[in-house]
Amino acid sequence: MEGFMCRYMDDQKGDRQLVAVHVAGDFVDLHGFPLGYLDHDLATLTACQVAQVPHAALDGLMVTRPNLTKLLWFSTLLDAAMHREWIFRLGRLDAIARVSHFICEIETKLRAVGRSDGSSFHLPMTQADLGETCGITAVHMNRMLRELKDRQLMTIRRNQVDIINPAGLAELGEFDPSYLFLDNTG
Predict the structure, then answer these.
(1) Among residues 3, 25, 63, 149, which one has the fewest Cβ atoms lying within 10 Å of its Cβ?
(2) H or E stretch covering 161
(3) How far is CA 62 from the centre of its chain?
(4) Which sign does the torsion angle of CA 55, 181, 7, 26 carry?
């Protein structure tokens, strides 16, 4: 309901890899409903306010409100679409494009819930968090953020992102928001 959360996995050395970032309005643990448990971990990136919906309550709602089943399924498929996009981003884009793509994605998600005006938003993630999201080190993330500033595409200072050239940032990151299905609520 409030704050930023992430999904992550640790390697054998204990190093974390973020595999999703969630904003207010996301249904974070829906995977655990049909599967019974999560194969990854969840963490807060900021102070958060969450609402819990017991699995038994979901079972009851699906019986009494069958239209909700389609919306829950839509939410799960949306998560899958975002995961595919993250795989593409990490597997095919260079570091600067990965950062650009992530910034475009998070801005689009925040705008959808009224937390961005389209060019400016609060992103309370450290450079290490951003690096884990984009598959690069915090030091390399610092370089990429400086390069995006030098290219006059965006700036980030004290967790405040200002996108100077949205079209240029999206082009660099090969960002197409259609996978977020914002024009389709299920």
Answers:
(1) 63
(2) strand 160-163
(3) 27
(4) negative
